[in-house]
Design a protein that fits this description.
By secondary structure, this protein is α+β, with helices and mostly antiparallel strands. It contains four helices and nine strands; from the N terminus they run E-E-E-H-E-E-E-E-E-H-H-E-H.
Length: 125
């Protein structure tokens, strides 16, 4: 199971990469494995300001549809354009080309509530 040490994680299996005031968000390798083949991703929150733990979109796999949640409060600046035509990229490259959104963070202190790589790895066993 791939759990990059430089990222932060949520209990809902999202990862967060911080670059200044911008947070890039995706789902973890564990999450994509549990979902199975991703067939559709719907994110219609670009430009919206959302609170931590609010739903920013949904991900549909062969087995199920799941909500995706904001790891931190902020404004959704960008949605990964590659997801529209190739949602399966989330299965093949969840920490790279399969990112979901970029957020301009409102309150960086919320990062303290996220899990470290070690904590996340312990949670998923």
């Amino acid at each position: 199971m791939n759990v990059p040490a430089e990222l932060k994680y949520t209990k809902e299996h999202e990862w967060v990469k911080i670059d200044g005031n911008i947070a890039t968000v995706g789902i973890t390798d564990f999450a994509q494995g549990e979902l199975g083949d991703v067939v559709f991703i719907e994110i219609e929150t670009e430009g919206e300001e959302l609170a931590q733990e609010e739903t920013f979109g949904t991900i549909e796999a062969v087995k199920t549809v799941s909500d995706m949640f904001m790891p931190v409060s902020g404004t959704v600046l960008e949605i990964n354009p590659a997801l529209e035509d190739t949602p399966e990229i989330v299965n093949t490259d969840p920490y790279g080309k399969g990112w979901m959104i970029k957020i301009e963070m409102k309150d960086a202190s919320e990062l303290d509530s996220l899990l470290s790589a070690d904590d996340y790895a312990s949670q998923i066993g």
